[in-house]
Amino acid sequence: MARAATTSDVFNAIAEPQRREILVLLRAGEWPVTELAQELRMTQPGASKHLRVLREVGLVRDRKAGKQRLYSLDSRGLRPVHEWTGGFERFWNESFDRLDDYVQDLKQARQEE
Amino acid sequence: MARAATTSDVFNAIAEPQRREILVLLRAGEWPVTELAQELRMTQPGASKHLRVLREVGLVRDRKAGKQRLYSLDSRGLRPVHEWTGGFERFWNESFDRLDDYVQDLKQARQEE
DNA sequence: TTGACGTATGCTGATATCGGAATATAATAG
DNA sequence: CTATTATATTCCGATATCAGCATACGTCAA
Q: Structure pTM?
């Protein structure tokens, strides 16, 4: 087996920087593929492929508008990611955590001398 | 070019389900590799490899303890992911969004008849 | 129908991935 | 030193990925 298919879940879909850029851009509204590609400096086929992945995990919608196909955001799928990472919030908020880091580092340094 | 290296950033590191399981487990405290592997039903080399990736992106620390190596969480790297997804919060919270979905679906269905 | 425009798909090549098995390294005990 | 335990690394095979290019498909206008 290789890595899980990128189309299978949202975590994989947003692992790609260009796809994250697309999602950010779509917060501004609907975009036809060509304009989106120009804006983000990707090729049109490249944009189409990324949009396909995003569509398959449900992060974008598309609707036909003449020759164009307008893509828009459906960010509800990002909620689970937000919540999952939120489950770690207390670990980065608590101040003794940073102190603990410091202590750990000292211990480690001493051991490795 | 292929996909960005999984070691290069946190988004890629957490795209792997087993690595997410490891992070969740480590919220309970420090774990030696073998026990962690047993708990999550992975092989020891498998666990070591995932832990290496997590270490390289800074999501876990390790310290030596006799023959064992204890891994612990450093979840601060998850904060950017939490914040990035949080930038989409208003899009999934606003109720007109769901209404808009409904309208979009109707339009689409009508066009595709 | 033909042409032009917008978009999607197919193919190829280079590379990264993940799992498994074997083996190497590290640290302790006897 | 040797054996044992704990962990890391390496090699392998199968597969998924991403970019680039060519091309197919879809839609509209003349």
A: 0.84
Q: A110 at the B interface (CB within 8 A)?
A: no
Q: What is the pLDDT of residues A96-108, one digit of tens each?
A: 555 555 555 555 5
pLDDT band at B111 (very low <50, low <70, confident <90, very high): very low
Q: How far is CA B60 from CA A4, A33, B79, B111, in A?
A: 22, 40, 14, 51
Report the DSSP beta bridge partners of residue A31: A71
Nearest Cα neighbor of B19 from B66, B48, B68 is: B48
pLDDT score recorded for residue A85: 97
Residue A95 tokens read as: 């101040």
Average pLDDT over residues B83-102: 75
Closest residue to D26 (CA to C1') is: A67
User: A69 at the B interface (CB within 8 A)?
Assistant: no
User: CA A110, C1' D4: Å apart?
Assistant: 27
Q: Taking CB atoms and an 8 Å cutoff, what residues of chain A touch B17?
A: 4, 11
Residue A28 in this model has a pLDDT that exceeds 60: yes
The distance between the two most distant Cα atoms of chain A, rounded to a whole number of Å, is 69
In this complex, how many residue pairs, one in chain A and one in chain B, have their CB atoms less than 8 Å apart? 93
